[in-house]
Amino acid sequence: MDAAALHHLDLPAFDGAGGTVTLPGSKSISNRVLLLAALCEGTTVLHDLLDSDDTRVMLDALRALGCGVRHADATTVEVTGFGARGPAPQARLFLGNAGTAMRPLTAALAVLGGDFELSGVPRMHERPIGDLVDALRALGCTIEDLGTPGYPPLRIGRPQLRLDAPIPVRGDVSSQFLTALLMALPLVATRDVVVEVVGELISKPYIEITLNLLARFGVQVRRDGWQRFTIPAGSRYTSPGTLHVEADASSASYFVALGALAATDAPVRIQGVGEGSIQGDIRFLEAARAMGAQVAAGPNWIEVRRGAWPLRALDLDCNHIPDAAMTLAVMALYADGTSTLRNIASWRVKETDRLAAMATELRKLGATVVEGADFLQVTPPVQWQAATIATYDDHRMAMCFSLAACNHAGVPVRILDPRCVAKTFPGYFEALYAVARLPAPHVPVVCVDGPTASGKGTLAARVAQQLGWHYLDSGALYRLTALAAVRQGWPLDAAHEHRIAHMAERLPVRFEADRVLLAGEDVSDAIRTEEAGMNASRVSALPSVRSALVALQQSFRRLPGLVADGRDMGTVIFPDAQLKVFLTASAATRAERRHKQLISKGIPATLPALRADLEARDARDSQRAVAPLKPAQDALLLDNSALSVDDSVAQVLAWWEARQPFGAA
Q1: Cα gap 112→131, rounded to integer Å
Q2: How many CB atoms lie within 10 A of CB 539?
Q3: Is 314 exposed, middle or buried (0-12, 13-18, 19+ CB in 10 A)?
Q4: DSSP letter string over 574-631?
Q5: Residues 236, 181 share a domain
Q6: 157 and 172 in contact (C-beta within 8 Å)?
Q7: How many domains does the chain have?
Q8: Nearest to 230 by CA among 205, 211, 212
């Protein structure tokens, strides 16, 4: 499932959960250690680094600033810092919507000085940074607003630093402002430098992460409560050499919740983070237990089962788990009464105004919601409603509301713009499907059957891409079976039927985008020849082979859904499919299409011969004793003789949409 290509994703209602999920690295830790490694001399090897939109923009920025960046693999990066020589004197940095990149880089570059411009996506230009900028200007930094004062984009020049007085910074808007100062000031601490927090400091656990990581890089900040922080004179960053990034505790919250909601047999086990985490959001486990979840945890793992049911409502100050508290808002849909989440004003200055967004989307599901200036009150639905959930380009909105698919009313949930999860957890939905449970007959299927050269493979693949579902090219299975048999030197006839069938039962096939892999070998081209097609027809006429491939084909029916093409998908393999399409075109049209295809590949062919061959295949396929080619009784006929591929895709999607309970997406 390629979430990056989707407009929306429909989740059928899950009826259970269990299994193991391994989480990606923490965004908060990943971007902090990337910048700290850049500020050091020498090379730091970072293992288990998050690979996401936010870390990619940070890595791009570090390259632009003169750091050496080498990827050993997707999650191991070697960063050679600029250290004492300083960054490149000039750079234009685009930081997307990554607050964990924008705020610390602003502070570090402002105290070092140069000619730098920092910008992001439109939403980043709506996220306040004025309190950090005010603190830096009071320190003697030169920062120019390039847009609305107090918000990015910014231009940074040369500073004239004044370190003799405490530096005040507001703590009640975002903890990232204090983090940014604490990471930047060791670069210029020729004397003790003091930062004083004005007002209450929110999200204290994120400051604890910062202090912990600063210590790993050789800087010991002294703390007087949560109001006064002192960076000692002569502080200097030193590389730890190698550092492993913890898995993301905020991301763990979704799978903890899934276990609490749906793991009635086997637990949901979460690998990569545990109760020993330095991340504040690990305290989400306390809230989950308070709601009734059965939670066990070790230093690097968590296991969760459903305990109390319905969950127990709670009234909680969530200042210590600001990101994970969003997950509690969706868990509250399953509680035995009204839940109240307090002290969450920081939600309003995140990727979106999360307080308003959560209230709006929870109401769509049927909940009664009271939205306050800094609290949210959620009363579960009396009756669940199928809802189209807007995500506001906010990764946590998409991940939180996927949990609404655990409802026992059997109501599906539509998530708009699921690609936004790429900000911190690109593989989130795949991880969810791996541990969510739904009986195969309840997993939605769209079948596209039709004769040879009708275009069913192209149509089905495009529909699967649009829906974000798995794709099964059943014809490829027959082609693969024939190819494997030919490679063994076996004739494709009845005398070798049982030998071929035995092999077909264990066919090691995998579909990856537009590639077909047999035992790891890309055989996409090898099975697309005319000879391969003829061989596929021969093995498909062998009853034992067909029987052997039935179970293999049915195994592709997995969350979130399947689009299958072939000649008997709707009649034999998936007779209970929710939508069946029989795609056809005239023999003349199909012959013309095949002719163009072959000529484009440099293969000689004539239209009369191709048409005669197609008509012969149609007759053979429609008259075979086992699963003859014919429309299912409830199939919708689609003659695409005069239609483009886009037209055909649009028609199938329109038919599917008409059967869904959602409004217009």
Answers
A1: 19
A2: 27
A3: buried
A4: -TT-SEEEEEE--HHHHHHHHHHHHHHTT----HHHHHHHHHHHHHHHHH-SSS-S--
A5: yes
A6: no
A7: 4
A8: 211
Instruction: Give the pair of three-digit tokens for residue 46.
Output: 């970072």
- For all residues of the chain together, what is the average pLDDT? 93
Determine the straight-line distance between the first and last CA of the chain, rounded to whole angstroms: 19
Say what the pLDDT of residue 229 is: 97
Q: Are the CB atoms for 498 and 536 separated by under 8 Å? A: no
Asked if residue 569 and residue 549 are part of one domain, the reply reads no
Say which DSSP state 276 is in.
T
Evaluate whether 294 touches 263 at the Cβ level (below 8 Å).
no
Closest CA to 244 of 29, 47, 30: 47
Based on the domain organization, do 445 and 421 belong to the same domain?
A: no
Encode pLDDT of 501-520 as tens digits. Answer: 999 988 999 888 778 999 99
Domain that holds residue 274: 3-24+248-437
d(CA 528, CA 449): 18
Determine contact, residues 12/558, Cβ cutoff 8 Å. no
C-alpha count within 13 angstroms, C-beta hemisphere, residue 141: 30
347-366, pLDDT tens digit by residue?
998 989 999 999 999 999 99
Residue 574, token pair as written in the block: 């998936």
Position 653, amino acid: L
Q: Are residues 552 and 581 in the same domain?
A: no
Place of tokens 């960046």: 69
Catalytic residue list: 323
- Whole-angstrom CA distances from 253 to 17, 23, 269, 290 are 15, 11, 12, 14
**pLDDT, tens only, 216-232:** 999 999 999 999 999 99
Q: What's the whole-number mean pLDDT along residues 433-462?
A: 93
d(CA 52, CA 29): 13
pLDDT band at 5 (very low <50, low <70, confident <90, very high): low
Shared domain for 534 and 586, answered yes or no, is: no
